[in-house]
Design goal:
The protein is of the alpha/beta class and 258 residues long. It has seven helices and 14 strands. The chain has one domain (7-30, 37-249): Ribonuclease Z/Hydroxyacylglutathione hydrolase-like (Metallo-beta-lactamase, Chain A, 4-Layer Sandwich), CATH 3.60.15.10. Helices cover 20% and strands 28% of the residues. The strands form two sheets. Strands 6-5-4-3-2-1-14 form a seven-stranded mixed sheet. A seven-stranded mixed sheet has the order 7-8-9-10-11-12-13.
Length: 258
């Protein structure tokens, strides 16, 4: 049976501060090249007639407007940091237009943070117009969104467990500095892998460029893309020249079809 096509759009490829960073005087933050401008990291995935995103950060509303998104079936959460869940309130329009709660897939830990940050959506006496969420618990086991199969990819962000996700031959992992052997095994035959690479210098909780490239050279997918990139990485066009042929820096608005 032929595999269903997967269309991927990079809504954002930047770190928690985005690029440019507020008030930063560095050359990258003052670059005029569009590929040096990065919103908070997120991707949109379309397959089997369903559309969902991985993460919904503070730039979520603008990202969906930019891509003219009029359908959203679910949101997968990698972890509970604000640059990955800060935009969840913006599902309100989809709640109203489709008259249903938004399906949110997150670990039990991340659900507690969502309930805390958006507590006004979970009270018994809700204010009119608050977002409506339907929370689904992600464990290490595969699950389906309608008939779309999703495989969680547990990893570590220093001491915090984060979830990457594999859909078909596409895998997305961000905000990690350690991928355990059990998760690596789930990636060995994957055709396209997206992995975080914060900067060239080492970092306590993110892969740097050298570490991310090393992981990807071991896994050797057909194509690989780096995301969650800070202004300290350097200019997009210069870093791109340093990478092996199958690895690229992702950029906002990049589209893939797998």
């Amino acid at each position: 049976m032929a595999k269903s096509k997967i269309k991927v759009r990079f809504l954002g490829t930047g770190t928690s501060q985005g690029v440019p960073v507020l008030a930063c005087p560095c050359d990258v933050c003052h670059s005029s090249h569009p590929r040096d401008k990065r919103l908070r990291a997120s991707v949109l995935i379309e397959t089997k007639g369903k559309i969902f995103t991985i993460d919904a950060g503070p730039d979520f509303r603008y990202q969906l407007l930019r891509e003219n998104i009029t359908q959203l079936d679910a949101i997968l959460i990698t972890h509970d940091h604000k640059d990955h869940i800060g935009g969840l309130d913006d599902v309100r329009s989809f709640n109203y237009l489709f008259q249903k709660r938004m399906d949110i897939y997150a670990t039990a830990h991340d659900q507690e943070s969502i309930k805390k940050d958006f507590r006004y959506a979970f009270t018994d006496h809700k204010y009119p117009g608050v977002p409506a969420f339907k929370l689904h618990t992600v464990t290490g086991k595969p699950f389906t969104i309608n008939d779309v199969s999703v495989t969680p990819l547990p990893a570590l962000h220093l001491n915090l467990e984060v979830m990457g996700y594999r859909i078909g031959d596409f895998a997305y992992l961000t905000d990690t500095n350690y991928i355990p052997p059990s998760t690596m095994a789930l990636l060995l035959d994957c055709k396209v892998i997206v992995l975080n690479a914060l900067r060239k210098e080492k970092h306590i909780s993110h892969y740097n460029l050298e570490e991310a490239v090393s992981i990807l050279e071991f896994l050797r997918p057909q194509k690989a893309y780096l995301t969650h990139i800070s202004h300290l990485m350097g200019f997009h066009h210069e870093v791109e020249k340093e990478l092996p042929g199958f690895i690229h820096l992702a950029h906002d608005g990049l589209r893939l079809e797998i």
